[in-house]
Structures are given as structure tokens and as C-alpha cells.
Amino acid sequence: MIKLESEWSKTDKVHADVAIVGAGAAGISLAIELEGYGFSVLLLEGGQSEYSKDSRNLYAGDSTGVPLPFGLKGSRPRFMGGGTNTWGGSCGELDDEDFLERDWVKLSGWPLEKKDLNESYKRAARFLKLQEPVSDSVDVSRGFKQISGMDFRFITGTSVLRFRSEFDAHLKASKKIQLLLGANCVAISSTDEGSAVKSLKIAGFKGSTVEVKANKFVLSCGGIENARLLLNSYEQDSYALQRNKNTGKYFSDHPIAPCATVVGHTSQQGDLSFEVLSVLAKGRSTGSYQFMQQLGGHPGIPLPFYKLPYEIQKSERVLNAAVQFYIQEPEVSPVLISLWRIKNYIVGNSSSIEGSDVRNVLFHPLSLVRGILGKKMGARRLAMRFQIEQSPNPASNVTLSESKDRFGLKKVSLNWAFTSLERRTIDVLIQHVAKQFSSQGEGVINVDTALNSDRDNLPPDLRGGQHHSGTTRMSESADNGVVDVNLKVFGTDNLYVVGSSIFPTNGWVNPTYTIVALSCRLAKHLKSS
Questions:
Q1: Could you give phi then psi for residue 340, rounded to 5 degrees?
Q2: Using CA atoms, how far apart are residues 22 and 42, in angstroms rounded to an integer?
Q3: Residue 323 CB-density burial (10 A; 0-12 exposed, 13-18 middle, 19+ buried)
Q4: Tell me, what DSSP letter sits at residue 252?
Q5: How far apart are CA 350 and CA 356, in angstroms?
Q6: What is the pLDDT of residue 300?
């Protein structure tokens, strides 16, 4: 059943076998899996069934590093369904090498192998109603071209897109799951020694507070909020959880950006995916992400990617990476990038701007006008976009600021930071693709000016995938992580974390399919334990 604050606030305590904080992809799939095993479940969603400013404002905070393209608030929907409210539906398995310890990637390696997730991936495929194994290669007869020297991978789409609407009827009718809306977790109370969670305190927007008791507790609030809740819990006056030094460290997202223009491509129409997307969009030239949003997902439609083979990753000592080809606007000029940065600052997505950005806009008005007119006139190019793994970096982290939200929890301070390995990976990736195109007569790769002129940093128009990961990473011990191989928080008996925050490394593939697989795996573990 689903209860609003006016309903759940009528009691002082609520109890279930398992209490789950967060009703996004991880929380809803975990709750439904546990229901199938006969568990009673409390699913606690801080937001409502629809978007609200009150709820969204709880995600406000400081950003001191590379700004998230949509900011801390704009990149994390805070209402029933969580990130699936803006999800394009892309599903793909992580690669075998993503689970390996690589001596050139510090702190790489999962405490399990890819094969250990095979059954969970199959269960996730059934849950998401995928028609074929996600890891299968696309048959080239479908109109997609393979490029020699690149691994051909695709991400397929699910029709199970907006969990809020997909599972609304199921949750309303469920006798085992209670979904409490507007139920914000504001405290985690543990035993005297901090080894087990006794209860949670939830608070509503109308002032209600209730104690939540359960045998097992699970945090499933996303790559930033999971860490924030744990960090706040360490600072409680009494009955605080044992502090883990790794909580909040190793924040990662997928660095994504257009990086080059393909000139002189000579193959048949539809062979690289860019024309296929345009045809499916009925003539609208658009990037694949925007295309998926316009069509409300892409069920059954494969989106091809061309991946850097592991042999090249190993010999060049770089990260896992892939490229995709699509039609988009021409390369963004420096003055438009400055305007974009100023806009981010004004709307609160970034906490600072450079003086050079202001000078660019003030002193180059003609370039600014030409750039804006060019975008409005619909100029297009065949672009290459990279999507790469981010290496575990302790300087890329989530910490707490001194300012507090309306419930007294300290807000987030995010520092999204990169190492030189990310930039080297981009350079090796572009060079490798350019070499393959040239040798096969497929055209020429013209690297974008902004990327060429700054040889040390990532592109200024970098977009994250809103794939926040790594802040409560899985590890064999508390020395390098926050949760163990079964997702239980080190030093506790009954607290678990699920979602992309537990990823030790994030590969290049979109994370939601793996998140659902991990929820299925956790449900099975809780059943057996």
C-alpha cells in the first residue's frame, strides 16, 4: 500500500522485516524482489508521488570542483521513482574487465567477478522486460556497421521506464510493501557500540516524526545521498554509527562530451547509428539522449557503441572507454561555453565563475551572436562523443558543509575531480578511432578545437551522465571500502547499501541495469541470511 504523511503520521512507530530508504530504481526493485520472498517491507521515499520544490531543495549543496551540468539539485530527481523519472531506459552490462584489478588503475577491481552477477543480470532482464540478453552483439544485418579494431557493443532500451507509474498499481495493491511518501530519513540510531541499527527517524514536510523499526535496513538513495546520510549519522550526539574513513570518497560519474567531427564518411546510410536515430526521430536531427527523452525511452532499439578493446586499454594503460556517433550542433565556441558557465552560476549549478568567462562574453559580442544564431538555425554535424570510465580518486568526494537543510541534516559539498588518466584515456581513444577510420577509408576525425587547445584538461562542455557512483564502494575490507561483497556496511550487523554508490569502478556503461541486478542479488542474500 502507499501512505501519505497524513496517514503514516498517525502512529508513533512502524515496523517491517526490511526498511528501505529511497524509492528509485534500486529501492523499488529491491522491495518487489523481497515481497516475492515473503518479506514485509517499509519503503521510505522522502519526496512525494510528484515533483515538489520542497523536496528538491533538500538536495541543495556546494560544488567546489568540476560542476555537474545540471547541478546538485537538477541532476537528482527527488520524488517517487528517483532517477528513473529522467531515465532514457538504457540497459547494458558492465564489461568483464570492469571487475578486474588493473595495475595501472589504482583501487580497481571488484570483490566479485562478472560471472557472479550473471544470474542477477538475468533476473534484472526479466524485471525490466528486456526481450533479449543485453550482452549479445547486434547483428550487422540490422544496418549497423562494425569497425575493425573496435569492440562493437550496444545498449538496449527497456519499456519499463518510469518506475513511478510502472509500479504504482503494484505498490498500491501490495499487502507486503508499505510505501511511505514524504518520509525523510533524518537519523539513524544504532546500538551503544554502533554495530547494529536499532531504528530510523523519519520526518515529514508537515512536521510529523515517526520511528521506523526493522530487522534489516537498506540505504538506496543514490550515489550522493547514500554517503550524505552515512556522514550525517557519524555526527549524531548519541548512538552514532561507527565512522568509516572511505565514506564519501571516490565519487565518480561518466565523463561524456562530443570530441570530434567526422568528415567524409562514405559508407551506407544508417551504418553508424546516427542516421538510424534521425530516421526513428522522424527527421529530427538530435543526439541519442535527447532522442530517447523525446520518445519516452527506446524499447528494443539498440544504440551502438564502439569500445576500446581491452588489449589496447592494457597496452596503453588507460581506462575503459567507448565512442558513439550522432548528429548534433556544430562544435561549441569558447564564448558560448563561457555563457553556459555564467548561466550555471546564476541558476546555482556552480558556486563560482572565472573572470575570463565574463570577459569572453563582454568583449566578443559578435562571436556570441553568431554562435546563438548558428544553434537556432539548426546547423548540424556528424559528431563523435566519448563516454569513459572514471578512475577511483580520493580527491573526488562528497563531504558535508556547515549549512543545514530544513530537517537539520548537513548539506552536501561535492568536489568532482579528475586525474591525468581520464585525459590520457580520451586522447588514446580518439587516436585509435582516427587510425581505424583512416586505414579503412571511413573518413577523417577532426578533433574539436577546445580539446586540442588545452592538452591537459577534459573538454569545457563536459556533461556527466547523471550516473553518480563510488561514494560507498564495495571492497574486501574496510581499508578500501564501505560495504562488503554482500553490500553490508562494514562494522554493522544489519545495515546495507545498494545502488551505484557501491560501484568500486564504474566502467563506461550506463549503470541502471547493474543497479537493478545488484538489488536482485541483495534480495536473494537477505532471503538466505
A1: -65, -40
A2: 10
A3: buried
A4: B
A5: 16
A6: 57
Phi, psi at residue 136, to the nearest 5°? -65, 150
Grid coordinates of 149: 579494431
Distance CA 183, CA 47 (A): 7
Determine if residue 194 is left, alpha or beta; phi over 0 gives left, psi from -120 to 50 gives alpha, anything else beta: left
How deeply is 158 buried, as exposed, middle or buried, from its count of CB atoms within 10 A (0-12, 13-18, 19+)?
buried
User: What pLDDT is attached to residue 213?
Assistant: 97
pLDDT tens by residue, 326-338: 777 777 666 667 7
Copy the grid coordinates of residue 157. 532500451
Radius of gyration of the chain from Cα atoms? 23
Compute the distance between CA of residue 376 and CA of residue 425 in angstroms, rounded to an integer.
33
Low-confidence ranges of the chain (pLDDT < 50): 137-138, 140-141, 267-270, 274-297
For the purposes of burial, counting CB atoms within 10 Å of the CB of 293, is it exposed (0-12), middle (13-18) or buried (19 or more)? middle
The structure's pTM equals: 0.90
> Quick one: which of 151, 156, 83 has its CA closest to 121?
156
Compute φ and ψ for 338, nearest 5 degrees.
-60, -40
**Residue type for 414, please?**
L
String of DSSP letters for 343-407: HHHHHTS-S---HHHHHHHHH-HHHHHHHHHHHHTT--EEEEEEEE-----TTSEEEEEEEE-TT
CB 40 within 8 A of CB 319: no
Can you name the residues that pair with 185 across neighbouring β-strands? 202
* 106-162 tens-digit pLDDT: 999 999 999 999 999 999 999 999 865 555 544 544 556 778 899 988 888 898 999
Distance CA 222, CA 65 (A): 19
Q: What CATH number was assigned to the domain covering residues 2-329+380-528? A: 3.50.50.60
How many C-beta neighbours within 10 Å does residue 352 have? 10
Contacts of 276 (CB under 8 A, 6+ apart): 143, 144, 270
User: Chain-centre distance of CA 239, in angstroms?
Assistant: 32
Cβ within 8 Å of residue 139, ≥6 positions away: none
Q: Quick one: which of 360, 379, 136, 388 has its CA closest to 259?
A: 388
Instruction: Identify any residues that bridge with 299 across adjacent strands, giving them in sequence order.
Output: 157
Confirm if 196 and 448 have CB atoms less than 8 A apart: no
Q: How is 292-352 classified by DSSP, letter by letter?
A: HHHHT--BT--EEEEEPPHHHHHHHT---EEEEEEEEPPPPPHHHHHHHHHHHHHHTS-S-
- Domain coordinates in residue numbering, the chain: 2-329+380-528
- Per residue in 216-273, pLDDT (tens digit) is 999 999 999 999 999 999 998 777 899 999 999 999 999 999 999 988 775 444 456 5
